[in-house]
Every structure is written in C-alpha cells, then in structure tokens.
Structure to design on (117 residues):
C-alpha cells in the first residue's frame, strides 16, 4: 500500500470515529465581534499624538501602522527611544490597557488606524 493510500485510509478511519453534535444541541461560541466598537485613522508625527483616549470599558484594542514611517506607541511622554515599535504595515493588539495611547515617529508622518472594543 502506498503512503498516500495509507494516509487516506487512516484519515477515513479517524473521520468515521468522530462524534458529531446532535441537531438540537447548543454549540458554545467563544469569540465574536463585540456589539460596541470604535475605529478611526490618525496621522502620527514627530510629537506625541493621541491615538485613543482612556476607556475603563475597553476590552481590547488593535493599532495598525498603515503607511509611512515606523511608529512607536506608549504613554503621553512616548519617544522613539522609549516607545513600543510598530513597523509600517504591522499591527499590535492588547487586552491589557484601558489607558490613553499615544504614537510618535522619528521623522515625517505615518497614518495609523485602530479597532477598539
């Protein structure tokens, strides 16, 4: 028996051993899009720029650096030496802060966007 035939036979046996949910059985949902979310786009420059304000009800936030220069994020006094780097085209997600988040670039500008729940 070839390796492919053996793999197909094993896969078929594993499939036949699966136990399926009954038609009327509830299936738990663990991840879904929140009913309340906010999005925005901001131009970040060489001085700390507010991306998103403090929100005690924030569950998570994703910040994406969509154009221009590398961007650094942090608190109000963020700098290119103290901030968390988000490269152009990259994104950062956290569910660990309800504080304000600022951004800064070393030169020029960049556009960033966020999705907050």
């Amino acid at each position: 028996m070839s390796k492919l035939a053996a793999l197909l036979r094993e896969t078929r046996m594993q499939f036949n051993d699966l136990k399926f949910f009954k038609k009327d059985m509830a299936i738990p949902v663990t991840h879904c899009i929140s009913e309340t979310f906010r999005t925005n786009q901001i131009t970040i420059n060489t001085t700390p720029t507010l991306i998103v304000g403090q929100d005690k009800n924030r569950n998570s936030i994703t910040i994406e650096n969509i154009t221009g220069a590398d961007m650094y994020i942090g608190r109000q006094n963020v700098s290119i030496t103290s901030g968390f780097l988000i490269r152009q085209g990259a994104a950062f997600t956290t569910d660990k802060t309800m504080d304000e988040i600022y951004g800064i670039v070393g030169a020029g500008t960049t556009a960033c966007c966020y999705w907050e729940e």
Observations:
- The two ends are 54 Å apart (CA to CA).
- Residues 14-22 have pLDDT under 50 and may be disordered.
- The chain has one domain: 29-116.
- The CA atoms of residues 38 and 70 lie 23 Å apart.
